[in-house]
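2024-03-11 09:14:02 DEBUG pipeline.ingest accepted 1 chain
2024-03-11 09:14:02 DEBUG pipeline.ingest length=717
2024-03-11 09:14:03 DEBUG pipeline.predict start
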Amino acid sequence: MFKYTRVLQFNFEDEEGFGVGKIRGRDIVELAEKIGANTIAFFARDAWGRAFYNSRIMRKIGKLGKRDLLKELVEEASKRGIAVVPMIGHTTNPELYSKHPEWAQRRPDGSLITMDTDPANAPRNKPTWPLLCLNSPFLDFVKSEAREVLDYGVQGVFLDSFRYMPDEDRACFCSYCKEAFLKEKGSALSVTRDRNSRKYKEIFEWRLMVNVKAIAKLSEYVKKRGKILVYNNHPLGWRGRANSIAELVKEHVDVFFAECSETDYQPPGFIAEMVKLTRALTGKPVWASRNSFHMALTSSQTTGIAIRQGLREAFAGGGWPLFLVFASTFLLGLDLEPVKQVFEEVKVLEEYMQDAKPLPYVAVVFSNRSRDWSDLPSSHITDSYRGFYYALMSNGYPVNYVSDTCLDEGGFKEYKAVVLANVQSISKRAVNRLKEFSDRGGGLIATYVTGIMDEHGKRLEDTLLSEVLDLSFRGFLKSEWSYLKLASGHPILRGLEDKTVLWGDFDREFTKRRTPPQLGWHVIVESNARRLASIILPDRDFGNEYENGRSPPPPVLNVETPGILTGKGWVYFSGQPGRLYWRNGMPLVERLILNAVEWIAGPPPVKVVSDGFVELEAYTREGQILLHLLNHTYIGRIIARGNTAINDSWASTVENVHPPSRIVPLNNVKIVLRGYDVSSVYLPLRDSKLQFRVKNGIVEIELPKLEEYAFLVINLR
C-alpha cells in the first residue's frame, strides 16, 4: 500500500525569506493536519543555497536565528503520524556558486548558464540563479545534503529537476563535462550544430545519461538508508527533456512528481493528463500539484473551484494530489475548505485506487524519442499526441498514453487500438510488437512520417511500418496550406461525406513566418489500400483575409494524392490531424479523429454522455470498474490572447487568464458500458446506489445530477 497519498508542499519562495522568522514547524504541521494531508514536502534548502536547518555544509538562513526549522517540523509531524520528505538538490545555488564558480554550467564561450528570466530591457545586475554542473563536485555536495536531512529521521528525499540540458543552445561545456566526455567517449566534446549528425546525437544521448547516472548515484545512497526517492520530472517543463530522463531512470526513483505549475494556462483535464503521461513513462506512483495560487501570483489564493478540481484531477488521473503553498500565501490567509474537502474524498476513496489499473481502450503513444530527434520543434511534435488525447477525452472516451519503452516491450497488448500520431522514431523491437498486435486483431492509427527514424534518430528512406500498414513513403507535398476532399461510403466519413477539410493554420506569432512548420504538408504515399480522401492544393502561398496575409488560399488544384488510407485494422493520415486539432479544435477534424478511433477500436467499453464537458477517467480492479467523473463545464474561466505576437489593442490588453469561478451542474449524465455484466453501482462518497438498465447487452447508468465530481464503483458479476 502506497502511504504518501495526500501531500502538502510548503515552500519559502522569496529571496528575502519572507515569513521565515514567523512560521514555526508546528504551524506547517497544523496546516497539514487541518487539510488532511499525510505527507509534507518541504524545501530543506532554497534555490539561493540557504539551509532551513543546522547544516554543516551550508549557511542557515539568517532569519531563523538559533532555530532549526526542519527539526521542528519533523518532531511535530512524527507526533501526529505525518511523513516528511524534504526537498534538496536544486540545481541553482548562488551561495555555492560564489565559493565554487568552476562548478557552474558554461556555454562554449565560457559564459554562465542561468535560470534567470527577465524582460529584455530590465536585466538583473548580476545572475541570480546560476546552474551548477552534474559532472562537477556539485553532485557530491547534493549527496551530502541528502545525508544531512536523512539524519533527521525523515521518510525520504525529494529532488527537484536537475536542469542539465542536452540541447546545444543550453548545454554545458565546462571543463568537467569536457573531461568526462573525453574519458567516456575517447573524443572531444565539440560544438555540433547539425542536429542530424551522428556526433550531435551521441552528445545528446550522453547528456541525458549524465542526468540518469546522477539520479542513480543518489538513489543508491538513499535506498541504502531505507528511504524513498522522489524526483520532479515536470512533464511540461524544459522542453520535455525531463520526461526522457524519467523514462530512463524509472528503476531508480520511487515516486515521480508531475509538477503542473502551468495548469492555469492549460485546458481542463491537464493535471490528469500529466499524471497519466508520467505513469505511462515510469509505472511508478505519481504526485501531481495544484498550486494554491493562480498563474505566478504566488501571494494570492486562486478560486476554490480551481483548487478542488485540480486536486481531483491529480487523483482521477491515477496519481496522488499535492497542494503547494508558499509562505506569503499562508501568512496572508488561506481558505482551507477546498483542499480539506478533496483530501477527505481521497481518504475515503484511496483504497479503491491503490491497485487500480487504467481501463484499456485506446492508447496514444507519447514518444520522447520522436520529440528529441525530430527536426520539428519539440512543441510541434507533442501537439500531435495531445490533439488525439484531447479529442477523445473531451468527448467522454477513456484514453491513455503509452511510452516508447512500452512499445518496445509490447506492454500495450490489452488495448483495442494504438495511435501513432507522427511518432517518427520507432525501434525495430516496437515494430515487431506492433505487427504482433495487428496480427491478433489490434487496430493502428498512424499519421504523417510515423516510423521514418530508428530509435537513435537515424533517418530512413521509408517508414519502418511499411509492412504493417501496407504502404510506402515516396516524398512530400510541401504546401503551407492544403485541403482534404473526403469521399463517402465508409464509417470513418460518417457525417462528413463529400466535405472538404481545411488543413493548415497561420503562425500565432506571425513575425518570422506565416504558417507553422510543415502543418500543411502531406506525405506522398504509395499503396493499394482504400482511399478515403484526396488532397487539394491552393495555387498561391496565402489568402488575404482582406488586408492581412494570415488566411488560407482557396483549394483549386486536385493532385490526386491520397490523404486518408485504410486497410485491414489500420488507418493512415498523410498529414497531422492531431496537431491540427490541438491548435484550433476544428469540428471536422475532431469528427475524423473520433470516427477513425471508433472504426478501428470499436465502440468504447465505457463512455459518458452529457450536455456539458465531463472528463471520464476509467479503471479496472478485480471484480470492479472504477469511474471518476469531473465536471469541467465552467463559468468564469477566460483565456484571451492576441492574433499575432504584437499584443497591443486599443480596447484592452490581450493576454488574459481567469480561473473558473463556478461550475454549471449537469442533469441526467449518462454512463454507457459495453461488454460487462453489472451487478450494482455504488457511490462511496454518498454511500448510496445508482439504478441501471440493460438493453441488448448495453448497460446504461444515469446520474441524476453531477455537480463537480462523482466516483462510481461498478461491481461485476
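2024-03-11 09:14:41 DEBUG pipeline.report The chain has three domains: 7-354, 362-601, 606-716.
2024-03-11 09:14:41 DEBUG pipeline.predict end
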